[in-house]
Write a structure and sequence with these properties.
This protein has 181 residues and is α+β, with helices and mostly antiparallel strands. The chain has one domain: Beta Barrel (OB fold (Dihydrolipoamide Acetyltransferase, E2P)), CATH 2.40.50.90. It contains 6 helices and 8 strands, in the order ααββββαβββαβαα. A hairpin with a 2-residue loop joins strand 1 and strand 2 (46-50).
Length: 181
């Protein structure tokens, strides 16, 4: 085998690394801040952070999860929407958390991973049954853990899984959008 072929084979092998074992802080750190305070919980998957001196507060959507919709002024919410909001408040409101921004934005919100006391808060919301693993947007190394947490919460009938057939928020939003047209 030629040296060029060995080099190409080596390069392709290195690209096939096992992403489930990657450190999340090395995978996504477009911006990683130390500790920032959660000053508001908007719903079960959105928070407002106060980063400290010299920076403006900003809204952050929790990566990889989708919680039930809360009622808006012109639209009803879903079962467990307020419960999900309250649970996230219990977990993080007025606490300093470690924030990793993915670099993505959705509806003018940063997308982030939150950690508190070395615990993945996004994952915890799934484990407690207050959010779905948002599989259309999950990437390794989170995919397997988030989907397993959802299976376990569902099997234990925790949180929203107490419902016989809870409607995923993305389906609820699509149905609401069709009704408004």
């Amino acid at each position: 085998m030629s040296l060029v072929a060995l080099l190409l084979l080596s390069l392709s092998y290195n690209r096939c690394d096992f992403p489930e074992r990657l450190d999340p802080r090395k995978m996504y750190p477009k911006k990683q801040y130390g500790r920032e305070k959660i000053v508001r919980v908007k719903d079960g998957d959105t928070v407002v952070l106060s980063p400290g001196l010299g920076r403006q507060p900003y809204t952050c959507r929790l990566y990889g999860i989708d919680s039930p919709e809360t009622a808006k002024s012109n639209a009803p919410g879903q079962p467990y929407g307020m419960e999900a909001t309250r649970k996230l408040e219990q977990l993080v409101l007025n606490k300093e958390v470690e924030v990793t921004l993915t670099g993505d934005k959705t509806y003018n919100r940063e997308v982030c991973l939150l950690r508190l006391d070395n615990q993945d808060i996004n994952l915890r919301m799934i484990e407690l049954g207050y959010a779905w693993a948002y599989k259309n947007y999950l990437t390794p190394p989170y995919t397997e853990g988030y989907l397993n947490a959802q299976r376990q919460a569902r099997a234990a009938r925790t949180g929203l899984w107490q419902e016989a057939k809870p409607e995923p928020p993305w389906e609820f939003r699509a149905k609401s959008k069709r009704k408004s047209k």
